[in-house]
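Quick check before the chapter quiz. The format below is the same one you will see on the exam, so make sure you can read both the input and the output lines.
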Amino acid sequence: MSRQNYTFTSESVSEGHPDKVCDRISDAILDALLAEDPLARVACETFATTNRVVIGGEVGLTDQAKLHDYMERIPDITRACIKDIGYEQEKFHHATCEITNLLHEQSAHIAQGVTGEQGDEGAGDQGIMFGFATNETKELMPAPIQFSHAILRRLAEVRKSGAEPALGPDAKSQLSVVYRDGKPVGISSIVLSTQHLDPDLTSEQIREIVTPYIYEALPEGWLMDDTEWHVNPTGKFVIGGPDGDAGLTGRKIIVDTYGGAAPHGGGAFSGKDPTKVDRSAAYVSRYLAKNVVAAGLAEKCLVQLSYAIGVAKPLSIYVDTFGTGDVAAQAIEKAIPKIIDLTPRGIRTHLDLNKPIYERTAAYGHFGRAPEADGGFSWERTDLVDALKAEV
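Here is the expected output.
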């Protein structure tokens, strides 16, 4: 019997966090390439520090002769990301930071493992990927990470609208959520650190600014009389972003997924095109787990897939419903490959992933978001419910 009464903590970081700045740039470059070439192979990494951004990785295009033309657009794409996030600091400014582009052609040895006689066939790498869903929130996400994201997303909205001009782009949140009988009921502690542009503001003044928005983002009644608050606990937070701490693509993988409430595979997401199963198979794993829970087959579901480079079909499918299932986990495992093609090509086709839909995923989580009309967050759909019910 799993524990029913406990406290669990997850954290989130804002779009202005240095690692998230890098994720954003990597995914914006990916989107720009996919917009021109839906079959582009991209593995883009970004590093950012004081007044400097370095971009590296590999690109494979249908017409490789066009690579040079695309590369000339990289600085403008990078500056647009930094500007939209809101960085105009003396030592990290969208107009003046130095940008070094080291992207180059994809390795032919990697490409040969992915491309078969009829186009994209094999997985782009070996690896394990996990998807998770739980009915403790309407988004079927764990509450600690879902509401940690919600707080920072709300603060970003009021910062960018001009309603709270004192706030800066860099911020972190952390919630310790109390569970009773296996369900979230309140928050024992909240930690929020947010950059502020006025150096004279105190922690108490910052708390006055952010408190109404925190209440807006959280379920009514979750903030209790004995909830501990830690707002900018170190005092001033004026120097933020890559000037305060270096950033790197792919360094916030727990923030990107389930806040530690479920396992994570070995690979990050941002900057990778959907032939990379690190990304696409993690998305389809979430899709499957969410549909299992949405179908009422379990209150909680974990799906693991595994792949080998150059091999199309997954090596294994594992399902765990943590004792909450109305049907055996093995029955779900057998049903999954009957209702969806889990080859890399099958995943990309079913979820329509060869589109420029990734820049928007770079902050506030890849999961627990609403599916969008242009195909964004397609892995959050619950359109497999009937097929799952019929098969099990």
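If your answer matched, good. Residues 18-36 form the longest helix (19 residues).
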